[in-house]
Amino acid sequence: MKSNAQNFEYGKIIGSDVNPKNKIIDSNVNAVVIREYGEATVKYHAEAINSVKNSRPYIDFKYHVKIKILNKNGFKKGEIVIPRKTYNELEEEVLEVVATTYNYENGNLKRTDLDKNQIFHEKINKYDALTKFTMPELKEGSIIEFQYRMIIPDFRNLKTWEFQSDIPKLYSEYITYIPAIYNYNTSLRGYKKLDVSKAEIWTGCFKISSTTYDCSKMTYAMKDIPAFAEEEFMTAAGNFKSAVYSELADYYDPYSDRKKILTKSWPDADKELIGHDLFGRQIKEKGIFEKLIPGITGNITDSMGKACAVYDYIRKNIKPNGFMGIYSEHGIKKALELHSGNTADINLALINALKAAGLDAETIVLSTRSNGTPNGLYPVLTDFNYVVAKLNIGDDSYLMDASQPYLPIGLLPFHCMNGRGRTINLTRDSYWFPIKASEKESLIYDLKGELTEDGKFKGKLIVTSMGYAAVKKRELINRAGSISKYTDKFADQSGINVLKHSVRNADSTENLLEEEYEIELKTFDNLKPDQFVLNPFFMERLINNPFNHGERTFPVDLGTSKEIRISARIGMPDNFKVAEKPANLSMSLENKGGKYVFEAQEEGKTLTYNQIFQLNKATYTPEEYLALKELYNRIILLQKTDLLLKKTL
Question: CA–CA separation, 72 vs 566, rounded Å?
C-alpha cells in the first residue's frame, strides 16, 4: 500500500525526523507524531474484500503514521492496537499491515521490519475484535512507522479522524473521497481550528451499475497539535478532542432509481425505533407479564409499592450478561427464560412489567458518559447506547435501571449522568428529558473516643452513606465478597485498627447504609514519649489534587453534587494539653458552588472538630476550574497538619 499524502513516502527518513523541534515538544513529552495520514473512500462490493457481501457499499480506510520515541516512557506507543467492530455479522477487516522501526547505530540507520507472524487478530466478544502487534527493536530515540488498510462494512459513518491524541502531533492530514451519489454531514469538534480545509472534484472515481460518478475530495489538516490530556471528572474525551465526524445523510440508489434519506426528523426516528423488532416490538410485550403480576405485587395497592415489587422481580430474574445497547439481544421473552440479557433486555422487560401492573412507564434512550454526547441537530440513532425506564406517578417521574443491583428507584447509575435522554412513547411524540442525579453523593462521619496515657486512641466511628455514596459502598462490599473482607480493606486503606464492626442495610437499597466500628489508633511519638501526634484527617483525607493543570478547556463534570460531613469529639488525658492543632479554615466557591469549613476547639479536656466539604453542582464551567483547583490545594495543605499533644509537668 502506497501513501497518497504528498511528501510522505513510506520508509523515507529525513533529518527533522531524527531530531524534531517544535514548540509543542517539551520535557514532559515521551513521544511525538512526526506525520500522520488517513484516507477514507466510499467504494462498492466489486472492489471489496472477504468481509463485505455483494451489493453493499463500504469504506476503504488507509492509515500511515511516523512517530519519534523520545524516552522509555514512550515505548507504549510501539504497542499497536487497532479496534475492529462487527456489524450484523459483517466484521471490519485489517489488511496490508507494514511496520518498521528505525534506529541509528554507529552513525548508520538500521531498519527492522515487523515479522508478519507477529501480527495477531483477537476476538474480544461478538461485537468487538482487535488487531495487535508490537514494534520490533524499540529503543530510546527510535523512529517507528506503520501503515495498514481497513475495510469497514458500515458506510453510514466515515472513519472518524481524531487530530488530537495523548501525544502531540507535528502534522496530521485526513482525505475523504465521497461519490456524488452519497451525501455526508461533516462536523469538526474541538477548540483547535483546521490549518487546511480544501474541496476538489475527483473525476470518474466511482463506478456502479455501469455508470461512473465523480467524487468530492476533501482534505483536512492540522499542524502543531498539542496532546490532549484526559483529566478526572470529564465525559467522553471524544466530546472535546479536535476531530472530524462524517455521517451519511442521504444517498441515491442506482438500482432502485430512488433517493434514500437517512437524516431523519424525530418522528421518523420514532417510527424506525418503534418498528424495530428488537426495540419497538419489545415494548409491546406487556402480555408476557400480565399473568405474573398478581404473584409479583400481591396485595400491594399503591403505585410506588407496585413499582418496587416489579423492580425487584426484574432485577432478580434477569441478570446482566455484560453487554449494553438500546436493542434487545434475545427478545425479552427469551431473556426471561434464560434469566440473562443485555441492559436493553432487562430494562425493556421492566417497562413491560410496569405497564402490566397498570403503571405509566416510558422508554428513554441515552448515551453513556464514555460514549459521548448525542447529536443535538438531528437524530442519529447510533449515538445512543443505553436504555432505561421512566416511571410516572402523578406529577413525579422516577428513572429506573434494573440492570444495576444497588440502585434504588429514581437513581440511575453514574455512567448515565450525561445530560439528557430521548423519551420514546408508543402513543405520544418523543421528547428530551434531563438526566440528572436525583440524589447527591453524601457521607457523614461521627467519631467519639478517648486518647489514653499510653498513646492510643480508642473510640467508635459511625459512617452513614446516602445516594451515590451508598451505591459505591454496596458495590465495594459485593466485590470484597463479604462484610468482613470489606472491613479489612477499609482498615488497611485508612490505617485504622478495627476491633469490632457491623454494617446495616448492605442489601437494602431503599435505606441508609450504616457502618459502625470500634477502632484503635496508635498516636505516640517513638522519638518523644512525652507527646502524641494524631492526624485528625484520617477519614476522607485528600492527598492529590485532581485539578492539576494550568487551565481547562472543557467542563468539570462530577456527575452529581457531593457532601462530606465529619464531626469528632476526642477526650484527652488529664496530664496532656493541645500544643498544636490545624488552623480553622473557611472557603467558599462563587455563586454557592461549594465550600469547605474546618473548625476545631478545646472545651476543657475535650477537643472537638467539625469538617464540611460541599460541591453543590454536578458540572463546573472551564472558567470555574482554577477556583476548584485552589479550593483543593488549600484543603490538601490544611490536612497535612497534625494534632500535637504534649505532656504537662
Answer: 44
Cβ proximity of 349 and 315 under 8 Å: no
- Strand 169-179 to strand 31-43: parallel, antiparallel, or no bridges (unpaired)? parallel
Q: How far apart are CA 393 and CA 489, in angstroms?
A: 41
CB contact burial 431-458 (16+ within 10 A = b; e otherwise): eebebebebbbbbbbebebebbeebbbe
Q: Give the residue carrying C-alpha cell 527518513.
A: 13
Beta-carbon contacts of residue 198 (< 8 Å; ≥ 6 apart) = 218, 219
pLDDT at 6: 59
Residue that has been written with the C-alpha cell 422508554 in this structure:
363
**Three-state DSSP state, 57:** coil
500 neighbors 450 (Cβ within 8 angstroms): no
Q: What's the rounded Cα separation, in Å, for the pair 80 and 278?
A: 36
Look at residue 55 in the predicted model and tell me its pLDDT: 61
Residue type, 88: N
- Altogether, the residues listed in the chain come to a count of 649
pLDDT digits (tens, 9 = 90+) for 617-633: 999 999 999 999 999 99
* E strand residue ranges, 107-210: 108-113, 120-123, 128-134, 143-152, 161-162, 169-179, 182-189, 196-208
The cell numbers describing 141, all together, are 530515540
Q: Select from 413, 428, 409 the least CA-distant residue to 354.
A: 409
Residues of the chain falling short of pLDDT 50: 1-3, 48
Per-residue CA distances from 481 to 3, 78, 372, 398, 486 (Å): 54, 38, 33, 31, 7
